[in-house]
Amino acid sequence: MEELLDSIRENLGRLDARSVIDILLIAAFIYWVLLLLRGTTAMAVLRGSAIVLIGAFVIGRALDLRVLNFLLRNSLVGLAIAVPIVFQPELRRALERLGRAGRRAWIGRPSYEALIDALTQAAGNLAERRHGALLVLERGEKAWFFAAATMALCVLGMMLTHYFAIGAAAAMGVWALIRLRGPKLRYAITCLFTAAVVYLIIWGPFLWRQRGYVGATADPWLVERSENHLVLTLDRLAKWPLRFIVDPGEESAIGWLGVVLLVAPPLLAGRDARLQLWMLWLAGTLGLVAGLDLLRGTRQLQFARYVCLAAPAVAGLIAALAARLPRPLHHATPAIVVLIALACWRYAYVSEEPDWRKLGQIIDQHVQPGEAIVFYHGAQAEWFDEILYLGSAHYSQQFPRTIVRLSRPASPQLVQQLPGETAWLVSWQLGTDVSSVLPGARVMQRYEVPNLAICTRVRIR
Fold it and tell me: What is the Cα–Cα distance from 318 to 333, expressed in whole angstroms?
């Protein structure tokens, strides 16, 4: 990730006015070409070629296929020769438009004169015969194509910004297979596939590089250390639908009202497409995380960042269920939601995350320049001392400085090597005396950051 950020900063540092003009001109040219190809067979050829090239690129990079990668790298000359042959009609039409006057000829928008003439002639013929008719003007596949392209960009953004976006994307794909037919189904599946391919190109190498670190970092922190893991997981699952609207707290029994949104939709869905989409979305997000917790013994349902993508499904289910009520009650549902939110507004300001800034303030205000800071995990996992160090170094202005990271209680020899007569121990709850971690240490001052750390100043000599 740091290499990607450094590369972005380096490229942005080279950006000047000429580069911006160059980029804008190329973007305008590509956009104009796409407008010329819109609605023609060349667009279908272009889409097919893009899918083949992207698929070949991904396969070649993932499996390290040297011959395929060589062909892709050296195919530019062949493409330069093939493009004028394949797109000859479109290129000829573009050159013709360059010689025309008027804005419409340049931007490549379709002309509606022929459609207007046809409608006028049809209306005149019907009037002469004294016949009435219902004329239907269909927008065709173009509107669906651009809607699918927009959807692909949204899905890609979702996949790049959320942990378990694959569940929501899979839910949309399943819904499309159930509800859509013909060109609409092709566009929907194509956009989802395109988003997945682009995601793998952008983020795939980083995921592959980090695959070996998940078990050593995330898993120990997320493991549920309780014999009631099944009951706790089901309790969290039942309460989340209401917590997306108003959060009365994980321990509140009011949260069990959210079970209604888990039980009612399957009973009332039938063939209602609106309920089906949001039910699948909820299963692909909240259900996916709950299933992973049950299978792996983790507690991801405890944290909003892993399940927040299910919130749109909850809002959609409320709207879809409200639409089935009698008309006078349509406005009652949002009114009830607003009243509940107002009643529970104070819970919105309760943060689940510890305040790392307070830890930095304690170090800046109380730790003297010559004093060493000892980081220890305490009753937490062994890697917690590293988290404490990283957070302290980020929010305090006194780093770099002398620090010690303990993986186990210090030896008397190590304590003697610490500079000065006093030091600071930053740790989680110890469950024992400070001298068991730093032999011979005596407590002088103590500050606590809730749900994060205890900062203890000790005399070591």
Answer: 8
